[in-house]
């Protein structure tokens, strides 16, 4: 299961925010940032692995298995992917929130326009 275009947009925004922090040496709290980035990368890898496992299961599932066993295996693999996806989206949201807060706090003109709104 590959993410759709709408699912990739938050990921792209996160990666751009990370690049902004790295490019401008924004004052990210290094321990917080590292932990959030590690969680993002770890949950991304887990989600990709679950997706690959689900796809492999669909291709390699023996035809001779009883229907209830086939359904059970597919449901378990799908549930694992959905759990991993949920964890990834939560990690992505936390990283996104942190990086945006770092960018906003380091640019006075952004802070000024936010208070005028």
The mean pLDDT is 80
Instruction: Give the overall form.
Output: rod-shaped
Strand proportion, as a percent range, falls in: under 5%
Rg for CA atoms: 19 Å
Number of extended strands: 0
Largest sheet: none
N→C terminal distance: 41 Å
- List the helices and strands in order: HHHH
The helix tally amounts to 4
How would you describe the overall organization of this protein?
Helix 1 (5-24) packs parallel to helix 3 (67-106) and helix 2 (30-60) packs antiparallel against helix 3 (67-106). The protein is rod-shaped. The N and C termini lie far apart (41 Å). Helix content is 85%, strand content 0%. It is an all-alpha fold. It has one domain (7-110). The protein has four helices and no strands.
Describe this protein with a few key phrases.
single chain; 117 residues; mainly alpha
Write the layout of secondary structure elements.
Layout: H1 5-24, H2 30-60, H3 67-106, H4 108-116
Helix pairs in contact: 1-3, 2-3
Structure summary:
The chain is mostly helical and 117 residues long. It has helices spanning 5-24, 30-60, 67-106, 108-116.
